[in-house]
Fold this protein.
Amino acid sequence: MLNYVIRRLLQMIPLLIGISIINFVIMHLAPGDPVLLLTERNAPPEEVARIRALYGLDDPIYVQYFRWLRQILKGDFGRSFVDGRPVIDHIMDRLPYTLYLNFVVMIIIYALAIPIGNISALRQYSWFDHVVTFFAFLGQALPSFWFALMLIYAVGIKSDWLPISGVATIGVSLKRHGFWTVLVDRAKHLILPVTVISLGSMAGITRYMRSSMLEVIRQDYIRTARAKGLPEKVVIRKHALRNALLPIVTLLGMELPILFSGSVIIETIFSWPGLGLLSIRAVFQRDYQIVMALNMIGAFLMVLGNFISDILYVLVDPRIKYS
Amino acid sequence: MMAAVSKQPPAELDQLDPHFGGDALTLEPESYLSMVWKRFRRHKLAMAGLCFLILMYLVAIFAPYIATQSYRETDSANRLQPPSKEHWMGTDQIGRDLYSRVIWGSRISLSVGFVAAGVAVVLGTVIGAVAGYFGGIIDNVLMRFTEIVMSFPTFFLLITIVSIVERSIFNIMLVIGLTSWPGLARMVRGQFLSLREQEFVLAARALGASNARIIFRHILPNAMAPVIVSATLRIGGAILTESGLSFIGLGVQEPFPSWGNIINGGRTFLRQAPWICTFPGIFIFLTVLSFNYVGDGLRDALDPRLKD
């Protein structure tokens, strides 16, 4: 097992190097000189040159690459070209909001998708199964931003039931209000974005759970369990469900990058101050340092998530040999 | 198996074997395509989807005749008008006829989806085929590269590239295609890995066929079924991606209408003029839904084993 983990870790290194090179190259193909953003419009050439040297932008490209690589290994992603603040501060400001939103989404998706997929499989081709399949298709084809706007119109504008932007009502805080008021206010702000994101991503996991369960109940050991006279409930719960959940557990590893990168468009629509909104702003302002950092961290988490998935797979399923 | 079945009409058998040819024996074998069509027709929602898509492509092709007005002509006196007899879907924030814009938008949205998916399918198929066929170091290099591209959060990568290139319609197509091939490459590679060990490949090699010929003429036709299904689903996906990009202002640029950027334009006026956002969204939704159902129908029809 330890061997497997170490080999798997070593495999990540060339991958991460490749990712960093591609990331760096893309950013250097970008037109528009960031120095011009940092200086006054009519800055004298000496001033421009000074800034250029300050940020190391006049070094050869490979020198810049290695310097950047050394820095990010230390967790330093440089400074924003727009306001000079460290990129990592920008990210840390926004990260909690994205994690908070996507964590709630994740809980809701799994809490709903697992039982729904399960029942769908156990009653294959029943009306329930057909309805679930139908909604899965709808969910996958629905443009999330359009659905969000329609919801905003229906429950936000038409009726004022729910707030349509932000994380909390301004002024509602624990200092001035009771715990209960704050909780309800936060929850109300979550409802619309969570609904939109969940509906879009639930379809996949539901289908996955359904086919996993279908696969398992065809196995011989399920027939054996039934043949030895176990009640159906026990067969399903103890024998089938546990095995059908194995592939789902490994999906959890893949949630890591999703928690981070989340949903750019939905954050924009609901003015959710997370990383998605940050990335859009950075892209429009040509703040390449932030864009590079977000891509790099996102890709790193994806690689790490893959690693966790593989390890989880081996851990939860003793039938798999890690050779 | 499609190549094998469709390449053996009874006429050829007659030539090969002079003793073969009694009419009693040659029950007209159903061609592969008619078999697929027969199975596809049974999937009602896929048929409905296909009809809707044919209709949409006709609308896109004949947009100049179907649209009642220009997509760029503004009329400041008639801003934000609700749907009426003159303006079937109302007018937008600068007084353009929304119906005409949605019709012209179908041209852009559908072609972006089609070309972007085409780029992804060609790239994914070639990379997957070469990696799976040759194996070894070539496979290793290509698959590591595929993994690297796959590791980037797709939408971050997409908006990053889109932000540094000129946002022409052609570039949007290309960028969406360039970021969505890795999944397909992996799938095609898997197919090739198992197919290349089969006897018909050995036979082709023994006959002296070149590598390119074996890849494209012998193996690829046998690996086509999942590629066709995935290509269909990918067109829908690409339309969705384009509309999302255009919605945040990083896709197709004004004054050209795409379903996504019409919604973007109408977003600020959601309260006064909800129709601007509503209509294009319905078109995106129905088009993508149709592609997904057609893809599902094709999966059942092309390879019944793939079901569930």
